[in-house]
């Protein structure tokens, strides 16, 4: 009994709904929209809008948008920082001393002078296994070096004090240089 | 500090550093007598090297024998093991090479170094005695010094040289005296009255240095007669500790006279050079002289840094930034 009454009610509602149809203002617009949608469905290829939606869909998600913007700012700042440091370093290097290449000096007087000084300062004590000349010879050498240094200093003072002598020596030295060049 | 010897060749070691950490090492030995068996070479060298001998005429017109040897080392560990097993002239010195490669996204940076450990356990660093300009002069190669001293600025450089020489003399004396005091204090440890003697000597370190410098020429006789020590110690103290004082000075002299053969190190880095403590020669190669006084009281490190740009990282980063900017523009347009 109850089943029949329920199905009757349902039929009544359906009939009522069928009878009360919506009022359409512009059937033409609806027709056009339906035709458009159908024709779009027929074209299965991607449009620019689809691509843009696909590529840049993330811009609508706030946290992704801000993460990517932050990441790109960090990347740019890191690049600028790194390059500026490198440029500073290169600039520093460009001011560094440059040497014009030449054959190295065989053993400069400076070096020998320094070694003699070191020998003197360390109390003239050399480990036995390193001695290649006798102590006496070494003493003689040191005395000669000292003597020469004193004489050289005196000679320089003498030349400095006498302008004529200075001029004469300079001329002689120049002449000597010229002869060497000719040779 | 070093015994004069002229047997060793003039040696220049060039390290060609590759991005993978391998190093091609080239040794150039000048004036070497090719007929003689090679010995006394400043850096590790053996039969595994490719050797080429040649006779060349120098710019001065002299005949120079040159031996060139090349070897590829897979990494710095190989160079270090060669240093460890070195039987050459400088075998007693602890030397190491180092290589470091760091990826820094836009660039890959490289660092190569050659280090010589300090020889003395005592002494003062040279930086305490020389100013910046003097330090540059101190560490500069001989030919550069020579050129400066004979340039139009010769007066300035001669004054600089004199100042450096004077300060090095003081540095040397200070090292000797401090070394002697430290050795002496070790030898007299636990002997009666040692504490007051060591303290007296320590407090008179500067006076002792002055005395040595003033009496440079008669140092031997002054020391053997005890005149130097008696200036600071009593007669009784002098007699008690004389043997230890003599022994200490012998020990210090032994450490001080390092038999090191000088040479030059050159480094060629991969990519663009961004940092170094070396000099740059006319062929844009880094150059360091290696002399015993450089590592007597402190470690001597010759280092160079360079970088190679990672082009792919530049492209990837550029594309990413453009992508994000475009996204932002698209959003602005959509909203508008």
Verbal overview:
The complex is a heterodimer of chains A (183) and B (336). With 183 residues, chain A is mainly α. Helices cover 74% and strands 1% of the residues of chain A. Chain B is built from ten helices and eleven strands. Chain B has helices spanning 76-84, 132-139, 142-149, 154-187, 194-203, 205-214, 219-224, 227-230, 235-256, 311-335, and strands at residues 10-17, 23-30, 50-57, 63-73, 95-104, 107-116, 263-268, 272-276, 279-281, 286-290, 300-309. Helix content of chain B is 40%, strand content 25%. Chain B has a seven-stranded mixed β-sheet. In chain B, β3 (50-57) and β4 form a beta hairpin. Chains A and B meet through α4, β1 and α5 of A and α3, α4, α7, α9 and β8 of B. β1 (98-99) of chain A pairs parallel with β9 of chain B.
Task: Tell me the β content of chain A.
Answer: under 5%
Alpha-beta content class of chain A: mainly alpha
Provide the structure class of chain B.
alpha+beta
Query: Any low-confidence stretches of chain B, pLDDT <50, length ≥5?
Result: 1-6
> Which oligomerization state do the chains in this entry correspond to?
heterodimer
Radius of gyration of chain A: 52 Å
Total beta strand runs of chain A? 1
Given the structure, what is the number of helices of chain A? 7
- Number of DSSP-assigned strands of chain B: 11
Helix content of chain B: 40-55%
What is the number of independent domains of chain B?
2
């Amino acid at each position: 009994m109850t089943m029949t009454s329920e199905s009757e009610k349902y039929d009544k509602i359906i009939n009522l709904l069928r009878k009360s149809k919506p009022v359409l203002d512009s059937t033409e617009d609806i027709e056009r929209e339906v035709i458009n949608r159908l024709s779009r469905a027929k074209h299965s290829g991607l449009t620019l809008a689809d691509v843009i939606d696909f590529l840049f869909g993330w811009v609508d998600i706030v946290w992704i948008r801000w993460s990517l913007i932050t990441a790109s700012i960090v990347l740019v700042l890191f690049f600028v920082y790194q390059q500026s440091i490198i440029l500073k370093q290169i600039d520093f290097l460009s001011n560094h001393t440059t040497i014009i290449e030449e054959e190295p000096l065989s053993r400069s007087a400076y070096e020998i002078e320094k070694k003699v000084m070191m020998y003197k300062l360390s109390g003239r004590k050399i480990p036995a296994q390193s001695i290649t000349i006798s102590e006496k010879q070494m003493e003689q050498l040191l005395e000669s070096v000292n003597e020469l240094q004193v004489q050289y200093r005196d000679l320089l003072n003498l030349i400095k004090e006498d302008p004529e002598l200075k001029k004469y020596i300079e001329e002689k030295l120049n002449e000597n240089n010229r002869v060497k060049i000719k040779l | 500090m070093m015994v004069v010897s002229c047997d060793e060749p003039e040696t220049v070691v060039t390290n060609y550093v590759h991005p993978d950490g391998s190093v091609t090492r080239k040794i150039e030995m000048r004036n070497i007598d090719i007929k003689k068996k090679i010995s006394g070479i400043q850096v590790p060298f053996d039969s595994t090297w490719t050797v080429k001998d040649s006779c060349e005429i120098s710019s001065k017109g002299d005949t120079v024998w040159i031996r060139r040897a090349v070897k590829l080392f897979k990494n710095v560990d190989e160079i270090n093991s060669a240093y460890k097993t070195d039987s050459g002239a400088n075998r007693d010195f602890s030397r190491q090479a180092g290589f470091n490669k760091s990826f820094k996204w836009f660039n890959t940076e490289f660092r190569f170094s050659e280090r010589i450990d300090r020889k003395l356990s005592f002494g003062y660093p040279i930086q305490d005695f020389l100013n910046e300009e003097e330090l540059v002069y101190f560490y500069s190669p001989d030919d550069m010094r020579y050129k400066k001293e004979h340039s139009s600025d010769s007066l300035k450089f001669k004054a600089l040289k004199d100042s450096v020489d004077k300060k090095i003399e003081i540095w040397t004396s200070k090292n000797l005296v401090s070394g002697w005091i430290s050795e002496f204090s070790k030898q007299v440890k636990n002997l009666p009255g040692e504490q007051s003697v060591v303290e007296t000597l320590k407090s008179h370190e500067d006076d002792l240095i002055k005395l040595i410098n003033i009496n440079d020429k008669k140092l031997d006789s002054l020391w053997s007669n005890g005149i130097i020590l008696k200036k600071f110690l009593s007669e009784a103290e002098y007699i008690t500790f004389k043997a230890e004082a003599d022994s200490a000075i012998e020990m210090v002299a032994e450490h001080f006279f390092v038999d090191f053969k000088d040479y030059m190190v050159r480094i060629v880095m991969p990519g663009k050079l961004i940092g170094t403590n070396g000099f740059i020669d006319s062929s844009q190669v880094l150059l360091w002289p290696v002399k015993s006084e450089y590592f007597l009281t402190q470690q001597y490190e010759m280092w160079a840094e360079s970088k190679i740009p990672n082009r792919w990282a530049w492209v990837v980063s550029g594309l990413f930034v453009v992508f994000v900017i475009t996204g932002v523009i698209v959003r602005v347009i959509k909203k508008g």
